Amino acid sequence: MPFASLGLAPELVRALADRNYVAPTPVQARVIPEILAGRDILAGSQTGTGKTAGFTLPLLQKLSVASRTSNSPRALILVPTRELAAQVGDSVRSYGKYLRLRTQVIFGGVGLHPQIEALRRGTDILVATPGRLLDHAQQGHVRLDDIQMLVLDEADRMLDMGFIHDIRRVIRLLPPRRQNLMFSATYSSDIRKLAQGLLHAAAEIDIARRNTAVETVEQHVYPVPKEDKRALLSHLIRAGDWSQVLVFTRTKHGANRLTRQLEEDGIEAAAIHGNKSQAARTRALADFKALRVRALVATEVAARGLDIKELPYVVNFELPNVAEDYVHRIGRTGRAGAKGMALSLVAPDESSLLRDIEKLLGRRIPQARLPDISAPPPRRAPLSRGASGRRLPAAFRRLPPTPARPPARRSPAERTDACTPPAGWRRAVAWAASFALTGRR
């Protein structure tokens, strides 16, 4: 079934063709006609099956034919994390590049003023995290009374992160007549309770059995003592010559510690978590996608926002406390029908967490045989860093360090000439500034 058969506009079909998207996924085939028909949606499907395009495409089409009455946003997409906000914003712009619609993305961790200026210029589609959106709304930087469509993406994650009160405050700022869309990879009783108060005569679309992992992901468990996890992970990366692996830890401190340890083992690594600045998180993700970093160590904050094309490996260095988070973690690989592998390093004190995960999945995860890590493979030297902390290009890393050179000795005549003002008032001013800064007497 081609996308055009779903009733999408030629501009959207053209944008999809530019990304080599020919046929819709099952969730897209189900939700796009319902959204175009104006119905509220409660949709659940496995991670990596195209939910973002499922709501973005019909949203763009409906806004493109509706009249604009002000500079205020007409569609609001709420997401739980900065990474997911940036990812959804990129998708909206990519799919809508042949339409005359404006998109803005706002989230915390960055300055307010650039976002304020962007909101003043006006937008049609606003992608936001709840907290930062409320900051702007309370200060009068954005009005939400023209919203025609509301999307809650990864709604269960927003509830897990404690955003339920912020979501309700945002909903009170919206007009009562609007189309509401809720998308999530998992369902819970809290999600259904929220849906009952938000959705009206909604179409409920559940493509796959709830809380299941993608079938294209091969899963294995390594039973290993806690103190041997680092050695096993380093061995797997080096012995398999992995070029990209996403590693999940339970805490921010653990992510930083593991990153340092991997770099000590000669493996290029970077950490991404909530304590990192947005610039640092963006740079780490860009380096990972460009293969300048082999191992990206992340906490749960990244589980719902990372979209890395053809990511081959995901490793649970520590199992999550909530079984549903396991589904989201390993859903970073095996996306859009591609093959992927998810490995979990399970210490004896994590056996109860493993049982919860297997109960959720409805099956046992096969155990892998531990390799011999007593004699690890040769290490690959880590990338050198410049004075700024950024990794240097390979050509510069091979150059030997430049030896320090002693300052040249000058004759008395040269020292006298250095204190003589140059001719011309412009040069004199420059000379005076140089004289003051260098502290010559």
Low-pLDDT runs of 5+ residues are 382-404, 414-418
Query: How large, in whole angstroms, is the Cα Rg?
Result: 27 Å
State the CATH topology of the largest domain: Rossmann fold
For the biggest sheet, the summary is: 7 strands, parallel
Number of domains: 2
Give the SSE string.
HHEHEHEHEHEHHEHEEHEHEHEEHEHHHH
Q: Strand share of the residues?
A: 5-15%
User: Given this structure, which CATH class of the largest domain is correct?
Assistant: Alpha Beta
**Span between termini:** 82 Å
Task: Offer a concise description of the structure.
It contains 17 helices and 13 strands. By secondary structure, it is of the alpha/beta class.
Can you characterise this structure?
It is built from 17 helices and 13 strands. α6 packs across α8. The strands form two sheets. It has a seven-stranded parallel β-sheet, with helices on both faces. It has a six-stranded parallel β-sheet with strand order 8-13-12-9-11-10, sandwiched between helices. It is globular and about 70 Å long. By secondary structure, it is an alpha/beta fold. It folds into two domains: 204 residues, P-loop containing nucleotide triphosphate hydrolases (Rossmann fold); 176 residues, 3-Layer(aba) Sandwich (Rossmann fold), CATH 3.40.50. 39% of the residues lie in helices and 14% in strands.
